[in-house]
Amino acid sequence: MTTTAADSAAPAGGEERSQASEPAAAAAPAEHTGHGYAKQKDQHLKRLRRIEGQIRGLQRMVEEDVYCIDILTQVSASTKALQSFALQLLEEHLRHCVAAAAVKGGEEVDAKVAEATAAIARLLRT
Predict the structure, then answer these.
(1) Are 7 and 17 in contact, with CB atoms under 8 Å apart?
(2) 57-68 tens-digit pLDDT
(3) Where is this region: Disordered (predicted)?
(4) For 41, left (φ over 0), alpha (ψ -120 to 50), or beta?
(5) Which residues contact 90 (CB under 8 A, 6 or more apart)?
(6) What does CATH list as the number for 38-125?
(7) How far apart, in whole angstroms, are the C-alpha atoms of residue 76 and residue 40?
(8) Which of 7, 50, 78, 91 might form a disulfide with 54, Cβ 3.0–4.6 angstroms?
(9) Nearest one of 9, 82, 14 to 51, comparing CA atoms
């Protein structure tokens, strides 16, 4: 099973996000040969597991009644780690997917640029 950006951006607490709140991510074209992150997949998974550990650490801190400021410091570190990962993934998308569309030209390049612009806007809102 593959996950999409929308899957991984689901709200905390297991809440379901309304389909009407955001448009669905565009499906990859049929001739799509791979993702920009494919070469770094193992490194990305390792990094995400580390971030997952940070989040689990936050849960433990709350369970153990750790001082609020100490928890907030760890929240900040976890947030920065996710932002850094997102920027790296965005760079790989631009270098691979958008660049490939630019070579092909036509409507695909416009669609990829619009898609990347929307992703950047979402990142800036967080």
Answers:
(1) no
(2) 999 999 999 999
(3) 1-44
(4) alpha
(5) 116, 119, 120, 123
(6) 1.20.58.1000
(7) 25
(8) 78
(9) 82
Q: How is the chain split into domains, by residue range?
A: 38-125
Contact 115, 101 (CB under 8 A): no
The position carrying tokens 């850094």 is: 84
Q: List, for residues 68-89, the tens digit of each pLDDT value.
A: 999 999 999 999 999 999 999 9
Place of tokens 């997949």: 41
The pTM of this model reads: 0.67
What is the residue-wise DSSP string for 48-114?
HHHHHHHHHHHHHHHHTT--HHHHHHHHHHHHHHHHHHHHHHHHHHIIIIIHHHHHH-THHHHHHHH
